[in-house]
Design brief:
With about 250 residues, this protein is of the alpha+beta class. About 50% of the residues lie in helices and about 10% in strands. The chain is built from eight helices and six strands.
Length: about 250
């Protein structure tokens, strides 16, 4: 791979996979690579060290930045105002995704569980730059867990034209990797977030996206957990196959 004097290659060490990134004019861009890259422009990130792992997390989290462009693989600074969303923005965005994706009303509860699980595992904070994409992918994954007839990744861009298949697939892959594919929903978690969301919605009048009933019955929770195990297995197999294919690509492929 050729690079100009302004480019810096980033290679992750201390793991079985190597991840390469290109940094040009202060804007980060990256792609998953199957080969280790060398040369004078190589910068090593050793995930065996605490700081190295933090650097890796920060680097991978760039795709959740609303200013990150999936086609150019760059973070384009200053596109959106640096302000936290209002409650109305949060509500109407969730409502838009739920209606467009034909999702069930229980989906926001699962979404909250997955977002908190993701934030806990990564140590990052929800902010004005990442909230929209984190919410989007958490809702899409929650829909797959809840409903066997959920839309697949290829369908979401057809009902939400502002997003692309590449965006959905990339967000899903990183989100799942940091969750370690842990999508299992526990009854106590569901009940906790149902009551939190219900209390919040009742106080603001924003309750049209909430389920009309209370916590799940034991039978429904059992069905949900069985479906979760099924979908988890399918997603693990899907992304393990993708990684396996990348590792067998010849150097310089793509």
């Amino acid at each position: 791979m050729e690079s100009s004097g302004e480019d810096h290659m980033v290679v992750v060490t201390g793991d079985k996979s190597s991840i390469g990134a290109k940094k040009k004019n202060g804007l980060e861009a990256s792609t998953l690579k199957s080969q280790t890259m060398g040369g004078d422009n190589t910068l090593q990130i050793d995930v065996r060290t605490k700081e190295g792992f933090k650097d890796l997390v920060r680097w991978q989290m760039r795709i959740f930045d609303c200013n990150y462009d999936f086609e150019t693989d760059q973070v384009i600074e200053g596109l959106l105002p640096e302000e936290n969303p209002t409650l109305e923005e949060l509500y109407y965005y969730c409502k838009y995704v739920i209606i467009s994706g034909r999702m069930e009303k229980e989906i926001p509860i699962l979404c909250l569980v997955y977002i908190e699980r993701f934030l806990t595992k990564t140590g990052i904070l929800l902010n004005h730059l990442n909230w929209r994409r984190l919410t989007l992918i958490a809702l899409c994954l929650a829909s797959k867990i809840w409903d066997d007839d959920s839309l697949e990744n290829v369908h979401f861009p057809k009902v939400m034209p502002e997003i692309s298949l590449k965006e959905i697939a990339s967000l899903e892959k990183v989100f799942l990797q940091y969750l370690d594919f842990d999508l299992l929903m526990r009854g106590a978690e569901y009940a906790k977030y149902y009551f939190i969301l219900n209390t919040f919605a009742s106080g603001t009048g924003m309750n049209s996206c909430l389920p009309p009933v209370g916590p799940l019955t034991a039978a429904k929770m059992s069905d949900l957990q069985n479906n979760t195990n099924k979908v988890e297995g399918e997603l693990r197999e899907k992304y393990e196959i993708m990684v396996s294919m990348q590792k067998t690509m010849p150097s310089g492929f793509g």
